[in-house]
């Protein structure tokens, strides 16, 4: 795993942690009425997608590698892509039921996958005795 991938994954996890903290102990009704939390969660979801895939102006070296993206179920990326697109381009049309479901269902599942990737990379890096600066390649 490239060092850049690890850094990006950690930043994505941090945004997920923020989202979970924002909605902690909130009911759906509380969530949809709290404008600040809505905007904060929307921003963090958009950031997650942009960290993973970047924008048209982002250098390929500053987004997740294809290797890592392919290790994560495309279902999550596809859903995140659609959610991000609505959040950025059609904010007034955000389906709050879908957003709440994303926060409470998809993000926790994706979190587990990303956390496992980070933990496995750290373990593999520790056992990579040839050259600790060499990226760990996932086969």
Please provide a written account of the structure.
- The structure is a single chain.
- By secondary structure, this protein is mainly alpha-helical.
- The chain has one domain (3-127).
- It has six helices and no strands.
- It has helices at 3-23, 28-33, 35-53, 66-71, 74-89, 96-127.
- α1 packs antiparallel against α6 (96-127) and α3 packs across α5 (74-89).
- It is globular.
- The termini are close together.
Q: Which helices and strands, and how do they pair?
A:
Elements: H1 3-23, H2 28-33, H3 35-53, H4 66-71, H5 74-89, H6 96-127
Helix pairs in contact: 1-3, 1-6, 3-5
**Which structural class should the secondary elements be placed in?**
mainly alpha
**Number of strand elements:** 0
- Number of separate structural domains: 1
- Quaternary state of the chains: single chain
Distance between the termini: 10 Å
Helix content percent band: over 70%
- What shape does the CA trace take? globular
Sketch the major β-sheet: none
- Give the overall average pLDDT: 76
Q: Number of helical segments?
A: 6
Poorly predicted runs: 126-139
What would you report as the Rg, rounded to the nearest angstrom? 16 Å
H/E topology pattern: HHHHHH
Beta-strand share of residues = under 5%
